[in-house]
């Protein structure tokens, strides 16, 4: 009985440490939104609070607008305040991140990328862009 109670408490703790991000429509795409869902882990507040020097997982589902033979992910993490902006950009092939390599047009696929929040970032607004 104690083991099952510990499991339930552990499961509740893990589930509480992630948050599905509410998406808003982009004007560029009208009713056809390519990003379908986004989950940030760990995240236990709304909005998520990120700590410098830590990494977070972004799990997403998206619809491919075209046939893709060799998927890559461009991750842009941007820290900005009123006086300056710092960009960290990485490009990764499907062979190094959790995304499929081949996707057909109109197909919905799942991906997972690690988002680093660098120590060089100052407190303030953080923008993360995941692009194909």
UniProtKB/TrEMBL annotation:
Gene3D superfamilies registered for this protein in UniProt: 2.60.40.770
Keyword Cell cycle in annotation: no
GO terms of biological process kind: sterol transport
Molecular functions per Gene Ontology: sterol binding
The UniProt record lists the keyword Transmembrane helix: no
Signal peptide range: 1-17
Domain MD-2-related lipid-recognition: 21-131
GO CC terms in record: extracellular region
Name of this protein: Putative ml domain protein
Record localization: Secreted
Keywords, ordered alphabetically: Secreted, Signal
Family named by the database record: Belongs to the NPC2 family.
